[in-house]
Design goal:
Elements: E1 16-28, E2 32-39, E3 42-49, H1 56-62, E4 69-78, E5 87-98, H2 112-117, H3 119-122, H4 126-148, E6 152-153, E7 159-160, E8 172-175, E9 178-182, H5 187-195, E10 200-208, E11 221-230, H6 235-265, E12 278-280, H7 281-290, H8 304-318, E13 322-326, E14 349-354, E15 357-364, H9 369-378, H10 390-394, E16 403-409, H11 410-418
Parallel strand pairs: 3-5, 6-10, 12-13
Antiparallel strand pairs: 1-2, 1-4, 2-3, 4-5, 7-9, 8-9, 10-11, 11-16, 13-14, 14-15, 15-16
Helix pairs in contact: 4-6
Length: 438
């Protein structure tokens, strides 16, 4: 018989169906046996009234274990007493596709590290699995906007012959008779695509960072969403693209998953108004110092405490969950961020904070070869033709249009959208300094 999903059973009352899923709970009494079976769309109660001697079905149910994979064929009955949607299945046949060992290694109160060890079991819980249903919606909405805006989706290499950007925080891997590096950003390749005449670039792909960070928002491998736009006049155009994309994302998430997110995680999905608030770094610093952060006035960049406090201050003043922080000092930004004419100490760049966490870094890029080389040399980087920047700098020698873009962490977006405690819960299989398995 063709499988019917639990979520579709309301339209099958009175009929005979087959559902396939896992045993969630067992309540096996002497006269009536109750088995809750769960698939990815919901859970249903299976109710079997024990017969006398020779009740083979009753004996089979008595031998079941929680999380065994089963196929249940039976009649769908409306029963208002049943808490699971007012429906139950009266079974005619049960097939145990795969029996689970008794005594599960994780439970509802298990800590994060043990749950990560048994991630496939952890993800059978609807609240955990919801993350990836939301992720699918998020990526679809992002691609929808990218297509509407004329972007071409690329897949840039993740193996590099030289360490990207500063050369720090990269993983070395053996590559035949030489050393290769895992890409810590698609930045240089995105800009190469702009030089190639691909007017607008969009990518969703893996990013690798050899950071020995043990925070709730860092991972050594994560999924990056990258955009690069040609012929932009400044970072404002890039910010306008991103805020429109994120608004569409949250509209779709609210429509399709808002009620479930609030039920499972207690987080309301707020669709933001446009435009997002914007503060220059100087304005942000003034606001933060007035609130007691960096009382000595020695910081040039925001730390996590500053990001949280600034977001809280903006939310209190404007009611908005997002804030762009712009015009960062050149000393804390990459060499390829453009510096406004007459203001060599600043960059036309931004970070986007959402509910206290930075989810995006972006900028107008420096597209003029001479200035780019000078800014790289200023940061002590080798700009020679045989150096690590040689091929990258070549892209700027033959007519590079003005351009800007951003990189966004998908896991951080999911973490904030659902109100998750850690990025570990926002990815399928987490990778960190102490975790390479499963």
């Amino acid at each position: 018989m063709v499988r019917v999903l639990v979520g579709e059973l309301a339209s099958a009352v009175g009929g005979t169906v087959t559902v396939k899923g896992w045993v969630e709970t067992l309540r096996l009494q002497s006269k009536v046996q109750f088995v809750v079976v769960r698939d990815h769309t919901g859970a249903v109660q299976v109710t079997h009234r024990r017969g006398g001697a020779g009740d083979a079905l009753g004996e089979l149910l008595r031998g079941l274990t929680v999380e065994s994979a089963v196929e249940v064929t039976g009649r769908v009955v409306a029963n208002p007493v049943v808490k699971l949607g007012g429906l139950e299945i009266v079974p005619e046949r049960v097939v145990v596709a795969s029996v689970a060992e008794p005594g599960l290694p994780i439970g509802p109160e298990t800590g994060a590290e043990q749950r990560m060890n048994w991630r496939f079991l952890d993800l059978r819980r609807p609240a955990r699995r919801l993350v990836f249903e939301v992720q699918t919606t998020v990526e679809r909405a992002m691609r929808e906007v990218a297509a509407e805006q004329g972007c071409t989706e690329l897949h840039t290499p993740k193996l590099m012959g030289t360490a990207s950007e500063s050369g720090a925080e990269v993983f070395e891997v053996g590559y035949f008779d030489r050393t290769a590096y895992l890409a810590q950003s698609p930045q240089f390749y995105k800009q190469m695509a702009i030089a190639a005449g691909i007017d607008r670039v969009f990518e969703v792909g893996p990013v690798f960072r050899a950071e020995p960070s043990f925070t709730s928002r860092h991972a050594t491998e994560f999924t990056g969403v990258d955009v690069e736009l040609a012929w932009t006049d400044g970072a404002e155009e890039v910010m306008a693209f991103e805020e429109a994309m994120l608004r569409r994302v949250l509209e779709r998430v609210a429509e399709r998953h808002g009620a479930e997110i609030e039920r499972h995680w207690g987080t309301p999905v707020v669709v933001p108004e446009l435009p997002f608030p914007r503060l220059t770094m100087a304005e942000a610093m003034q606001k933060l110092r007035a609130a007691g952060w960096d009382a000595e006035g020695v910081r040039e960049d925001l730390d996590p405490e500053g990001e949280r406090l600034l977001s809280a201050l903006v939310a209190e003043e404007t009611g908005h969950e997002f804030v762009f922080v712009t015009r960062f000092p050149a000393s804390v930004r990459p060499f390829y961020h453009r510096r406004p004419d007459g203001e060599p100490g600043l960059t036309d760049s931004f970070d986007l904070l959402w509910k206290g966490i930075e989810i995006t870094t972006g900028a107008q890029r420096e597209h003029r070869y001479d200035r780019l080389v000078a800014q790289a040399a200023e940061q002590g980087m080798d700009t020679g033709p045989e150096g690590p920047l040689g091929r990258y700098l070549d892209c700027f020698r033959y007519g590079m249009p003005p351009h800007g873009g951003f990189g966004l962490g998908l896991g951080r977006v999911l973490m904030q959208a659902l109100g998750l405690p850690s990025i570990r819960d926002a990815v399928f299989l987490f990778r960190g300094p102490n975790r390479l398995e499963p």
